[in-house]
Amino acid sequence: MNTRPDSTIFGYARARSTGTVLRTVLIVAAALIGVLTLPRAMSGQAAGVTLFAPRPTTMAARCEDGGRWHDPVVEATREMLALPDEREARARLLVLQDTLEQLAGAHPDDVGAQFRLAVALGARAEVEGGATRLRVAKNLWSRLEHVLTLEPAHPGALHLRGRLHAAVLRLDGVTRFLATRIMGAGQLGSASWEEARADMVGAEAADPCVPEHHYELARLYEELGDPVAAAREIGHVLALPVRGAYDRSVTAKARRLVPPDRVAKADPSE
What's this model's pTM, rounded to 2 decimal places? Predict the structure, then answer.
């Protein structure tokens, strides 16, 4: 049974200061999720998952701290997307979302709390389907707008909004019409390739140490007919440090998106 007692968070008495509450919830959430996901990650490596070692470049050295996405809750959320069992991923993400919604509700002006919830919603949008995915996407759009009101250049929020723009545009015409006109997701109807690109470029510029920023931008460039720019971004992905199963999956997708010969010809300094 799911309970939300007013006096406790994760069974701990509510702390006197909001800062202590925030630290307590994040530490406990990260520890809980880490315990749940570590055995899966370890078993994946034991099964022979290929580890892509980053090339020793200036970018790799510059990005050892992982960028702004190097947050225990954000990283744990992304790792859930690498779980082999989607049903398990959906269940864990739903529990996490419930917790982060409570935290975001208690701290409406805290950018970190709002963004962590947006990441959980974005992850759920990837594993859910049908009407549930649309409902989550609507919630995600609203949450991202709130984050970007608090911090207009937030790289993570720009990345997720850019991906949401692109996801809507990748729908076939009938599905897009049903989603944006019939099923109540009218705000998604404003999606455009220009906005998607602007958001992705903004995310990469603000936080170039996240492989996924470069991968999604490369994917967008491929769709917009700019293979040279796509190859350059894939080169950036392959130059960055790899952390965990999710980053390995991004690196593997990057290698499949652009052939190695095109990456080798790209200018990584651009």
Answer: 0.72
